[in-house]
Amino acid sequence: MEQTFIMIKPDGVQRxxxxxxxxxxxxxxxxxxxxxxxxxxxxFAEKHYEDLSAKPFFGGLVEYIISGPVVAMVWEGxxxxxxxxxxxGATNPLASAPGTIRGDFAIEIGRNxxxxxxxVESAKKEIALWFPEGVSDWQSSLHPWVYES
Length: 149
Ligand code: IDP
Ligand code: MG
Prior knowledge:
- This protein has about 150 residues and is α+β, with helices and mostly antiparallel strands.
- It is about 40% helix and about 15% strand.
- It contains eight helices and four strands.
- The protein has helices at about 10-15, 20-30, 40-50, 60-65, 80-90, 100-105, 120-130, 145; strands at about 5-10, 30-40, 70-75, 115.
- A four-stranded antiparallel sheet has the order 2-3-1-4.
- It starts with a strand and ends with a helix.
């Protein structure tokens, strides 16, 4: 099954949104396969966002991500990469629909609370970067109550 990398950014941690965010993914039916709180080095944040290194906001983005601990997670389930992005909402919180995480909890693009991988390939890359030790391979006994098969 598909896996995605989700990170609660430093503002989400500081604002006490960790439980709420985990709860939304859990209640949807996705399985939590990896979880840790980390304060990343500047070079690690730059690596995570390397595709955006030419953007004018890159410096500010890196400062934001290293400004405090983040909660790094791997979630698993059917279509979790794309659906996870839907749960998170649009990049600019003023354009994120109500009911999404950013739509409900954020105002500014540079304080948008959460990261989610944008494609299956980038999810694989990000999971390998953030969880080189690997993730848990437990199976939920509720599976037949969430999936038809
Ligand atoms: P995403 O997080 O929705 O995938 P990306 O375009 O990959 O959005 O940008 C990564 C992060 O960079 C965003 O979540 C946001 O925190 C920040 N960012 C994106 N665009 C801007 C901008 O125009 N100004 C400031 N920060 C931005
Ligand atoms: Mg992105």
